[in-house]
Design brief:
The complex is a heterodimer of chains A (276) and B (301). With 276 residues, chain A is an all-alpha fold. Chain A contains 14 helices and no strands. The longest helix of chain A has 32 residues. The radius of gyration of chain A is 23 Å and the shape is globular. By secondary structure, chain B is mainly α. Chain B contains 13 helices and two strands. In chain B, strands 1-2 form a two-stranded antiparallel sheet. Chain B is globular and about 75 Å long. The chains are: A mainly alpha (276), B mainly alpha (301). At the A-B interface, helix 1, helix 4, helix 5, helix 6 and helix 7 of A face helix 1, helix 2, helix 4, helix 5 and helix 6 of B.
Chain lengths: 276, 301
């Protein structure tokens, strides 16, 4: 039998293309992070590490305060995610449940704001946080990152909240719960998938953001991972084994988050149509 | 008989529904006001001033001079040209590659997660990291790209040292990075197409190619438009990938508008002129956003 007539072969081939295309750069930097400088400057290049070692990881932490960068990224990403989801939940509840005048205008404004170019906001934000004395304060990044993710988080939550039956809330309120109490005890838990999705998107956005992070937190001890990792690179040197080790360290949390919650992430992305 | 009170009144003190809505929307309004709306107003304001910290702390009003200067500035036009070319090349490029990936990913796999992760990983990789990784891929000596070319019998290229090649290397990288996001959106669109339509087309004797043109593509058009517009808006803001790969070089061959805004205002501390450039970038983005909102609203009705 002709193997090319077998539909399962084509399905396998298709899967291989998508997987190799998506995984190759990540797997490549992981392999590279296990190679020493000598192996890296060999020609022809090796794809599989010949003599794997974790030496580069130690060196990466020694050469730059990578642990500090990591901690800064965690503080900024977690802080902005919590702020974003908290504020977005309140707004989404109002938009999904209450009679809000000019509701459609507000929704359009939200979409419009989510399209603002970060490069345009960078200059005035630099001035504003300078004047507030908040440059090199985590807030200078937490506030903008939360605001940048806010529109999409709100729009995602509006559609989730609208799907919760009103009777459940009404019952809670008849039992003596306040409206906000009903929001936190009934609507938010029942919308947990939506809240989760919004949180993951906000977290990844913040973890990845570079332009504002490099402008608003310039002090070395404040740098986030995307900013800090650029600094391994000297004017004429490109210590790729160290950079790849640092990149792997920076990628692990995001890779874990999307691997564990992939269905949520896909759902959120396709629903909100987020920045790519 | 006591009639029951309206629920929302007794539930949150004496707040009316309108007042409650106001208080719930206030934090979001404050945050967006402080981080988005006020900065944009301030940006426009600053753009009318001669304000360069390296010349002194004083700002002096100079009307539209910064905008006139931008129109005379060859580097601005070069950045605008590069940005437009990136939009024109990478948006259709990502669309075609994304469509291909989506069609492949839509095949009936028994185990779905590796494919899904294959689409999600590129999306979750930070742009600057993608730039760094592909900078190494395009390395003239030790890069994967040249290695593959040599193995296939071609010649090594100095990818990031030649203006034209550097530009194409950057476009290739952007297409790789963004096509997965496009694929995710199109995949969601593909999954809404009823299977019966394909079966009916098959019964009518349509071959796979005809089924794609007559059934898939027309029904996928809304998803394609959404992906197209989002990609276009973000492509106008391109910064991270060229920044990490070439810093705009060689010369200014790969400098985008967003990069020029940053160099002018943050590195040269010329806030007035940098703001005028940023306003122009803002207007470009908003023009496309308005078209997008029109389309979305049109689709809702």
């Amino acid at each position: 039998m002709n193997p090319f007539k077998n539909p399962r072969l084509w399905v396998w081939l298709a899967a291989a293309i998508v997987v190799v295309n998506g995984f190759f750069p990540s797997v490549w930097i992981f392999f590279t992070s296990l190679k020493l400088e000598g192996e890296l400057t060999r020609i022809p290049i090796t794809y599989w590490p010949q003599d794997p070692t974790f030496q580069n990881y130690l060196q990466a932490f020694r050469e730059q305060p990578l642990g500090r960068y990591f901690l800064n990224s965690v503080i900024v990403a977690v802080g902005s995610t919590l702020l974003c989801v908290g504020v977005a939940s309140l707004a989404a509840y109002a938009l999904a449940r209450l009679r809000v005048p000019r509701r459609n205008l507000i929704l359009s404004l939200l979409v419009g704001v989510s399209m603002f170019p970060v490069a345009s906001l960078m200059v005035p934000l630099y001035q504003i946080f300078n004047e507030l004395g908040l440059r090199n304060n985590y807030l200078a990044l937490i506030l903008p990152h939360a605001a940048l993710s806010l529109p999409v988080a709100t729009l995602t939550l509006v559609s989730f909240f609208a799907g919760i039956p009103r009777d459940l809330e009404a019952a809670a309120m008849v039992d003596g719960s306040s409206r906000l109490g009903a929001l936190w005890r009934i609507v938010v838990p029942l919308s947990a998938p939506g809240v989760f999705t919004a949180a993951i998107l906000a977290f990844v956005n913040s973890w990845d953001e570079f332009l504002l992070a490099s402008t608003l937190l310039p002090a070395k001890a404040m740098r986030t991972l995307p900013v800090g990792i650029q600094l391994y690179q000297g004017e004429y040197v490109f210590p790729w084994p160290l950079i790849s080790a640092a990149l792997v360290v920076a990628l692990v949390p995001v890779a874990l988050v999307i691997a564990i919650f992939q269905e949520r992430v896909v759902g959120g992305l396709t629903q909100g149509g987020v920045k790519g | 008989m006591n009639r029951p009170q309206p629920r929302y009144r007794r539930s949150f003190g004496d707040l009316s529904e309108g007042a409650l809505a106001f208080w719930l929307l206030l934090p979001a309004g404050l945050l967006l006001g402080l981080i988005a709306l006020y900065p944009v107003l301030r940006l426009v304001y600053t753009s009318f001033f001669q304000y360069q910290l390296t010349l002194g702390p004083e700002a002096s009003f100079n009307g539209l001079e910064n905008y006139a200067a931008a129109l005379r500035d060859a580097r601005f036009w070069n950045a605008l040209k590069n940005t437009s070319l990136i939009v024109l090349i990478t948006v259709p490029g990502a669309l075609v590659v994304g469509l291909l990936l989506a069609l492949l990913a839509n095949l009936p796999f028994r185990v779905k997660w590796p494919v899904r992760l294959g689409l999600l990983l590129p999306w979750a990789l930070p742009l600057v990291f993608v730039g760094l990784i592909f900078q190494w891929f395009f390395d003239s000596q030790y890069g994967v790209v040249n290695d593959l070319i040599v193995r296939l019998g071609g010649e090594r290229q100095f990818w990031l040292f030649r203006p034209d090649l550097a530009f194409w290397a950057i476009c290739f990288t952007i297409i790789w990075k963004t096509s997965s996001f496009v694929a995710l959106i199109l995949l969601a669109g593909l999954q809404t197409i009823p299977k019966e339509l394909y079966e009916a087309a098959e019964v009518d004797g349509a071959n796979p190619f005809q089924r794609f043109w007559r059934v898939t593509l027309p029904l996928l058009t809304p998803a394609i438009l959404v992906a197209l517009i989002f990609r276009t808006i973000t492509a106008f803001q391109t910064f991270d990938i060229p920044y990490a790969m070439t810093k705009g070089g060689p010369g200014n061959a790969t400098e985008t508008l967003a990069m020029y805004v940053r160099v002018t205002s943050i590195e040269n501390l010329n806030f007035g002129y940098g703001s005028a450039l940023a306003v122009l970038l803002f207007l470009l983005s908003m023009a496309i956003t308005v078209i997008y909102l029109r389309y979305v609203r049109g689709a809702d009705e």
